[in-house]
Amino acid sequence: MPIEILLIEDNPGDVELTKIALEDSKISVNLNIVEDGVEAITFLRREGKYANVPHPDIVLLDLNLPKKDGREVLAEIKADEKLKRIPVVVLTTSQAEEDILKVYNLSANCYITKPVDFDQFVKIVQSIENFWFTIVKLPPE
Q1: Which of 21, 36, 85, 121 lies at a 20 to 30 A Cα distance from 13?
Q2: Edge-to-edge strand order for the sheet containing 110-113?
Q3: Three-state SS string across the chain, please?
C-alpha cells in the first residue's frame, strides 16, 4: 500500500518541488493535492467530489492559503475526532514566532520553514518522508 500524503498548498512552484522531491522515494507514495483551506477540509472529510479519496497518512500544510488559512484548517483537523490523529506537518515560508507558537498550540506535529533554495527544499521534503515513513509508527485510520 502506498503512503497517502495530502499536500495543502496553493503555490504551483512549491507543489512541483514537492513532487520532484518525492519522485526519488524508496517508499511508494501517493500525493494528493488541494489548493485552499476549504477544499482541504472537504477532502479530509471525504465530502462531495472527494467521497472516495484515501485517508491521508500525513498532511503537509501551508499556512498562507486562500479561502481558509492553514491555522484554521489545522484547528479544524485537531478538533475533529476522525481527523485529529493524522500527523500535520506545517511547511511554510513564515518564520514568525507567533505563527510557530500558534500552530504548536493548535497541536501541529511539527513546523518547518520552507527554504528558498531548490536543493534545500528537496532535502527538507525527503527528510520529512524519511522521518515520518521510516522511523515513526503512524496511527491506523
Answers
A1: 85
A2: 29-34, 3-8, 58-61, 88-92, 110-113
A3: CCEEEEEECCCHHHHHHHHHHHHCCCCCEEEEEECCHHHHHHHHCCCHHHCCCCCCCEEEECCCCCCCCHHHHHHHHHHCCCCCCCCEEEEECCCCHHHHHHHHHCCCCEEEECCCCHHHHHHHHHHHHHHHHHHCCCCCC
Direct distance between the N- and C-terminal alpha carbons of the chain, in angstroms, rounded to an integer: 13
Separation CA 43–CA 33 (nearest Å): 9
Q: Which three cell numbers stand for residue 116?
A: 528558498
pLDDT tens digits for 12-55?
988 988 888 888 777 788 899 999 999 999 999 999 999 999 99
Residue 95 main-chain phi, psi, to 5 deg? -110, 10
Q: What is the pTM of this model?
A: 0.88
